[in-house]
């Protein structure tokens, strides 16, 4: 096994609605959220994480707990030492740590107290910035100090400069329930009944082709459904492709001639019962120049309707019922569970991931 490879027997087996995938990239923040010298506390997979940017502009992530007395390092400050090295100082006793996690100094030590402080470390999380997004690698092995053997995804349609829309919301649900709700094709007419989107009375049979994609699957490029009125604002003859990738990334790439719209939804588990939803839209379509306030309001309403339904669903989930999955409307949810199991098994067994999704045409009514 190559040095730094994270594919070890540590990756746990996980069931639906419990546990998390590891040895994988999680969306953490927008690049613009991180300011040089600023220390910010996040929680991902139930772990406190200090996410910051050095004075030189490089993003980094450390476990947000000082190993001395457990104070959050994010409450301290980032400084530059005489040798030019940037360090995070704990607010409690001033212990200093490099952005690689290694302790550089314990101020309370006196000259004749021999101690190799470099042996003291806080957990370091690999970080990648890509297309204005910040991803954090969560390894199954908390002692992992190498570099990941895979890279975060890149997305088509990141055009028109920075994002046109950004919206965030926390769902009171495990990421599995949030993901399944996100990809559910049959709830739209009941949960989302805005006049500008679609009516519950406009349901009809649908058949969509799906193909496996890297660590996920896609509803291959097609004309949007005729009862989806929102696409009308784009004019022309739009084509759309919707892709999902574990652990929780879903994007819709719409093209109208040479113009593009990319709507990316990132699901980040805060802990077992809370998931952060970040909705990001890029576009070079003129509709976003004139109708941005209306589009933003619609997107917010859409997300909050989903959040309200998650809260309603929790009223039933608290009794731990057996869930009934049907074909074809629930096939994407089944694929998600298969993808999770295969990813965890591949990492546990130290072998390449084999996508379990096969090409298929799914049919449902909505």
From TrEMBL:
<dbReference type="Pfam" id="PF00355">
    <property type="entry name" value="Rieske"/>
</dbReference>
<keyword id="KW-0479">Metal-binding</keyword>
<dbReference type="Pfam" id="PF19112">
    <property type="entry name" value="VanA_C"/>
</dbReference>
<keyword id="KW-0411">Iron-sulfur</keyword>
<dbReference type="InterPro" id="IPR044043">
    <property type="entry name" value="VanA_C_cat"/>
</dbReference>
<feature type="domain" description="Rieske">
    <location>
        <begin position="26"/>
        <end position="136"/>
    </location>
</feature>
<keyword id="KW-0001">2Fe-2S</keyword>
<keyword id="KW-0408">Iron</keyword>
<dbReference type="InterPro" id="IPR017941">
    <property type="entry name" value="Rieske_2Fe-2S"/>
</dbReference>
<protein>
    <submittedName>
        <fullName>Rieske 2Fe-2S domain-containing protein</fullName>
    </submittedName>
</protein>
<dbReference type="InterPro" id="IPR050584">
    <property type="entry name" value="Cholesterol_7-desaturase"/>
</dbReference>
<keyword id="KW-0560">Oxidoreductase</keyword>
<dbReference type="InterPro" id="IPR036922">
    <property type="entry name" value="Rieske_2Fe-2S_sf"/>
</dbReference>
């Amino acid at each position: 096994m190559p040095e730094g490879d994270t594919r070890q027997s540590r990756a746990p087996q996980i069931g639906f609605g419990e546990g998390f995938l590891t040895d994988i990239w999680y969306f953490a923040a927008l690049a613009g959220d991180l300011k040089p010298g600023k220390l910010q506390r996040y929680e991902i997979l139930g772990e406190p994480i200090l996410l910051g940017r050095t004075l030189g502009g490089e993003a980094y992530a450390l476990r947000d707990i000082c190993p001395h007395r457990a104070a959050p390092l994010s409450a301290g400050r980032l400084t530059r030492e005489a040798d030019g090295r940037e360090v995070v100082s704990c607010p409690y006793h001033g212990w200093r740590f490099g952005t690689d996690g290694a302790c550089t100094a314990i101020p309370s030590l006196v000259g004749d107290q021999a101690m190799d402080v470099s042996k003291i470390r806080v957990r370091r999380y690999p970080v990648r910035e890509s297309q204005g997004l910040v991803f954090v690698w969560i390894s199954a092995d908390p002692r992992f100090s190498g570099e990941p053997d895979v890279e975060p995804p890149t997305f088509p349609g990141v055009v028109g400069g920075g994002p046109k829309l950004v919206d965030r919301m926390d769902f009171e649900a495990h990421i599995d329930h949030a993901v399944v709700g996100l990809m559910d094709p049959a709830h739209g007419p009941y949960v989302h009944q805005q006049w500008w989107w679609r009516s519950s009375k406009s349901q009809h049979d649908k058949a969509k082709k799906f193909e496996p994609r890297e660590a996920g699957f896609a509803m291959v490029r097609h004309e949007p459904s005729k009862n989806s009125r929102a696409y009308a604002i784009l004019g022309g003859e739009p084509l759309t492709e919707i892709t999902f990738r574990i652990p929780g990334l879903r994007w819709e790439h719409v093209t109208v001639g040479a113009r593009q719209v990319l709507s990316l939804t990132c699901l980040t588990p805060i802990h077992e019962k809370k998931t952060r939803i970040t909705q990001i839209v890029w576009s070079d379509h003129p509709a976003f120049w004139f109708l941005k306030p209306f589009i933003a309001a619609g997107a917010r309403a859409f997300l909050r309707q989903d959040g309200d339904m998650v809260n309603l669903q929790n009223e039933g989930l608290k009794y731990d019922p057996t869930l009934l999955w049907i074909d074809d409307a629930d096939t994407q949810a089944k694929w998600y569970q298969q993808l999770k199991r295969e990813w965890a098994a591949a990492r546990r067994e130290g072998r390449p991931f084999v996508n379990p999704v096969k090409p298929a045409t799914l049919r449902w009514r909505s």
